[in-house]
């Protein structure tokens, strides 16, 4: 880090300071190299993967692995891997662009195979492996010659992953660890050559091991019959006195949690990016169908409620795009300050990513729920045909359901979001208490007279931040540290923080649009709708939360305070008219328009 660089802000900083647009990363700031890679991967997704969707969905191993190796030849399996091991080591933004572009492939199953290969199947070795481990495994993984898998979950240890019972004991001659236990729901398992397996050394030291498929004592169980992503392999892995050479311990005994959480942090933003790509692909199918399908002597696209749904999808996708790339930009800025020549470069990278673990959790929640909402609207727009397999909605609708469950369920991720803010407030890692003390003065100040583009929306958002912090303040007063056990309230706080981060990212991104760009006026409308609806949701969330804290007996002073927030936050926006205009713009473009 050079002396001139200001320190990297901690995750959650957005709650206590206004957005600095100079440092906001958005897709409009992609470099030419980013755009070239985006085009290459989108071409691969549309030319090689999408036409093969049906075959891939029938779990055609040969086809899936052939396509994976083609990606290897294009260098796409080694985006995060140094050249010394056959990779390209590009930035994290590129990692996200590739994930997003693969998300457009319309084969969630193949995206899953690819994601595990390049993510949790490979990164633990890259980050924590010894030079010998990296030399043995990375060149094989980046070509697709070997397939990687990640075995953390157990039948009795899902969300509580660190409680796994799988054990590892050193053999008497000290040459092997003997692994015993069962892993559950392991993606790529039937095809994998290398498993990163987590196990407790001596019953309590959670650790990770690189376990080759040919290891005596390792067996892969039967394929699960799944609701979606049916073309990917998901099996249990059984370890019975599996003899793993001591050289295959990954990192250090007892460091399994560090490895697991680092993989999850990166996995979360990649999943978010992939869901973003999926959302855009599904949006385009829905719009195409709505324009072609006629009922009551006109295209269903003309019906006002269909316009409303199309606009809802566009707004959600634009907002998700804004907050996901903002998050990746934050991580990239932190990584850029590291010295790649440092011996512990990847450990530092993990720590840098960890600073934004809360934002990565928010991105995972928003990405997965955006695709969930978009596929649901997509099915509805297709009507009965949305329910029929040969039309392009039933598959994505089923496939995306898992996204709210893996990489940490969305419940767990929301607890992480609220828990992080709570911790940073209590430990004063962020000036949250100072900000809370200044709320009365903020409310006493005359609100800025609205005028100018998105000025009212920004003012409402600043009030929304104070409203969320007010709720946090009341919750901490009532429950102290036990707030973490009030999970519904924590979830509600997380929802407020997510609303704020997303709305701010959307407003900030829109401000960066070139005023001459054709999409700019519609982007402004999207930002207006997003901000107005976020304001309404924030007010509702605060009302529910305060009633919970005061057990339904809201003091008059609190009601009065809420009114003062309302005065600043109630939107004066014709949301319905704006939505019509947004949908009509999307119809004219025939594609996702931003
Ligand atoms: C198709 C598929 C592929 C997978 N691939 C892999 C893989 O490659 N490697 C791997 O290791 N794992 C994998 N998993 C496992 C996946 O990550 C877990 O299913 C997930 O972490 C949830 O664990 P669980 O299923 O045991 O649910 P549980 O943890 O039992 O959760 C059940 C419900 O309880 C809620 N809950 C749990 N704990 C809390 C809490 N503290 N507070 C509030 N709510 C809570 C959850 O949010 C959820 O709603 C895969 C799963 C599937 C289905």
In round numbers, the mean pLDDT is 96
- pLDDT < 50 runs, ≥5 residues: none
CATH homolog superfamily of the largest domain: Butyryl-CoA Dehydrogenase, subunit A, domain 3
Could you tell me the strand content as a percent range?
5-15%
User: How far apart are the first and last residues' alpha carbons, in Å?
Assistant: 35 Å
Tally of extended strands? Answer: 10
- SSE string, helices as H and strands as E: HHHHHHHEEEEEEEEHEEHHHHHHHHHHHH
- Give the number of domains: 4
Per DSSP, the total helix count is 20
Any idea what the shape is?
globular
CATH architectural label of the largest domain: Up-down Bundle
Characteristic terms for this protein:
594 residues; alpha+beta; Butyryl-Coa Dehydrogenase, subunit A, domain 1; Butyryl-CoA Dehydrogenase, subunit A, domain 2; Butyryl-CoA Dehydrogenase, subunit A, domain 3; 4 domains; eight-stranded mixed β-sheet; two-stranded antiparallel ribbon; 20 helices; 55% helix; binds flavin-adenine dinucleotide
Brief account:
The chain has 594 residues and is of the alpha+beta class. It is 55% helix and 10% strand. Helix 9 crosses helix 17 and helix 18 packs across helix 20.
Characterize the structure shown.
The chain has 594 residues and is an alpha+beta fold. The chain has 4 domains: 31-143, Butyryl-Coa Dehydrogenase, subunit A, domain 1 (Orthogonal Bundle), CATH 1.10.540; 148-250, Beta Barrel (Butyryl-CoA Dehydrogenase, subunit A, domain 2), CATH 2.40.110; 257-407, Butyryl-CoA Dehydrogenase, subunit A, domain 3; 411-574, Butyryl-CoA Dehydrogenase, subunit A, domain 3 (Up-down Bundle), CATH 1.20.140. The protein has 20 helices and 10 strands. Strands 1, 2, 3, 4, 5, 6, 7 and 8 form an 8-stranded mixed β-sheet that branches. The chain has a two-stranded antiparallel sheet with strand order 9-10. It is globular, with a radius of gyration of 24 Å. The two termini are 35 Å apart. The structure holds flavin-adenine dinucleotide. The site of flavin-adenine dinucleotide has 20 residues, from strand 1, strand 3 and helix 13. Residues 116, 150-153, 158-159, 185-187, 226, 234, 402, 405-406, 409, 411-412, 415, 487 line the site of flavin-adenine dinucleotide.
